[in-house]
Amino acid sequence: MHFYVAVGRCHQDEVFGTKVKGPGLQVKGPGLQVKGPGLQVKGPGLQVKGPGLQVKGPGLQVKGPGLQVKGPGLQVKGPGLQVKGPGLQVKGPGPQVKGPGLQVKGPGLQVKGPGLQVKGPDLQVKGPGPQVKGPGLQVKGPGLQVKGPGLQVKGPGLQVKGPDLQVKGPGPQVKGPGLQVKGPGLQVKGPGLQVKGPGLQVKGPGLQVKGPGPQVKGPGLQVKGPGLQVKGPGPQVKGPGLQVKGPGLQVKGPGLQVKGPGLQVKGPGLQVKGPGPQVKGPGLQVKGPGLQVKGPGLQVKGPGPQVKGPGLQVKGPGPQVKGPGLQVKGPGPQVKGPGLQVEGPGLQVKGPGLQVKGPGLQVKGPGPQVKGPGLQVKGPGLQVKGPGLQVKGPGLQVKDPGFKTKKWQIY
Q1: Is the pLDDT of residue 178 over 50?
Q2: Which stretches of sequence are listed as region Disordered (predicted)?
Q3: How far is CA 349 from the centre of its chain?
Q4: Mean pLDDT across the chain, nearest whole number?
Q5: pLDDT, tens digit, for every residue of 31-80?
Q6: What is the residue range of 29's domain?
Q7: Number of domains the chain contains
Q8: Which pTM was predicted?
Q9: CB 74: neighbour CB atoms within 10 A?
Q10: How far apart (Å, rounded) are the C-alpha atoms in residues 287 and 292?
């Protein structure tokens, strides 16, 4: 059966379902679609769209123009925008999202979760793995600490300090620039130079020292031994599992590479690059200064907050919120996921394995921890600090530009 009803320019056409059309309105059924100049509503899963808003969910109520949307597990209010649900709270106009395992705040950006905290824009990332702080750079881990730009690197058998260079370990100890070298059968002092040892030859003031143990030359200073090479005046140190070079600073070890002054730190499961913080780990990637944080189920991008997780997406500055049965879009953030908190404009994001805070940026989680602008990176076998730069690891400690190992010291 067909019915045609004309009112002005509007007509209704029903064929099994219902269709209503007019100058600024379209209504379709039985699945229900409503369209207008500033509005789109779809069902039965329900989608509501407006000039600055899109809301999707199973059993919703929408009111305007101040905008109120309600459903079984959802409440949306405007124009400052409040969205509430069983595992979700979203507040605006600066993004505020809260949920069981997640909090996101902006625009200074804070993201928090059980194993992760991210703060920006100066970037701090914390977790049970490495911790990274920037731009002064600090990286910490169970066997490693790295600090800069003066550079300090520490590890179980190694300490390196600078810029006059100190290296300590159970073997020989080396100091500069006045130069002191000590070891089980060896003592070297300067600048007048004194050298003692069992099988040793010493010359000066250009300085040559030879013997069955380490060999030392000057005035640019070269120290060689079984498993060890030290060169100067810019510190260059080599050992069985370690290489340290300066003054731009390069530190290499069994599971570690540290470069400066732009700073690159690499380790088993970790990469840190600067001066804009870039941190990579087994389940984590952090990049700056626009800020990108990636992990297993997590992506954080900036400077406008963009956060993605297993059930979560947060984007800014116009709010978009998506989750199982829910999408909210508008001038505030974009959010996806069930258990989420986003707050702004300083931006805090919290979740099960995530915390992000800004604008100094702190990121915490079970993986690496990153902080800025002085930059600290901490992890199970790694600590990096800056700008004086300290690097610590299981067999490594480096302080710029000094140096330590279990078998020797350089000052």
Answers
A1: no
A2: 372-400
A3: 13
A4: 46
A5: 555 555 555 555 544 555 555 444 544 444 444 444 454 554 445 454 44
A6: 4-86
A7: 1
A8: 0.16
A9: 24
A10: 5
CA distances from 145 to 174, 178, 247, 369 (A): 21, 27, 19, 13
Write out the DSSP string of 146-196.
EETTBTEEEETTEEEETTTTEEE-SS-EEETTTTEEEETTEEEETTTTEEE
Answer whether residue 8 is part of any domain: yes
User: For residue 179, how many other CB atoms are within 10 A of its CB?
Assistant: 22
Note the pLDDT tens digit of each residue in 218-234.
Answer: 444 444 444 444 444 44
CA 144 → CA 123, 291, 392, distances in Å?
20, 25, 3
Q: Is 188 exposed, middle or buried (0-12, 13-18, 19+ CB in 10 A)?
A: buried
Query: Do 156 and 401 contact (CB within 8 A), yes or no?
Result: no
Unique residue bearing structure tokens 């379902």: 17
Within a domain: residue 54?
yes
Omega before 121 within 30 of 0, i.e. cis:
yes
Listed residue (343, 336, 326) closest to 297, CA to CA: 336
Residue 164 is assigned to a structural domain of this protein? no
- Could you tell me the sign of the dihedral formed by the alpha carbons of 86, 87, 90, 91, in that order? positive
How is residue 405 annotated by DSSP?
Answer: -
200 contacts 186 by C-beta, under 8 angstroms:
yes
For 27, 42, 241, the CA distances from 55, given in Å and listed in that order, are: 18, 10, 57
Overall average pLDDT of the 132-157 stretch: 46
